Amino acid sequence: MNIYFLVEGRRTEKKVYPKWLGHLLPELEETNDAFAVDDKKFYVFNGNGYPSILDNHLKNAVEDINKIDKYQYLVMCIDADEVEVDFRIQEVQSFIENEQIELNESTEFALIVQNRCIETWCLGNRRVFKRNPDEETLREYIDFFNVSTDDPELMGKIDDFETHAQFHASYLKEMLYERNIRYTKKNPNGVTDATYFNELVERNRNTNHIITFRSFLDFCDRVRERMEEENAR
After folding, report:
1. Is the CB of residue 189 less than 8 Å from the CB of residue 140?
2. What is the largest CA-CA distance in the chain?
3. How far is CA 11 from its chain centroid?
């Protein structure tokens, strides 16, 4: 079992996903060389943003995977950003069809769309959320939208921010800073811990919030089931 991850984020996802995979699929080991895989490995490649991940890197990833012929999954992780999730999914599917991109028969393609971004998912941790924060900025954010009670994926943005993703990232940074956790895109401290991750899982399962996060959990469930079937043979 080997998995090739093509992630959009220039810095964050390449550090977050390996940690989260370690919590859900500890049998898998990360490799820094896509060609140096044998069994139970995963490789994460940074697609350097959208649409670069689509225009420049998806086809290259498929070519490498077909050449190596040892990967069971190619997983592409991208942000919805300013569009609807279904629009982003259709955009990727249309690109694959128009460019006639074809994986070998032994590799399955999985698409995970983060709505709006990975920080939106991370805002789902209600245990870290402080209801009466000291910082005025965070108080303003909570007055605008309370992510502890309402689904972070439904949150809009304050006019000061150009995109939803920018505002959601700022909200997460302020929320974590209130707990003395210094989060940046380069160093996504806090959100990779097992306790933090488990709170996101619980939020999704108990409230049906951060629904696109479920696509990642479901994928990992499929991988685990497949590994268990292979081990039972």
Report:
1. no
2. 59
3. 12
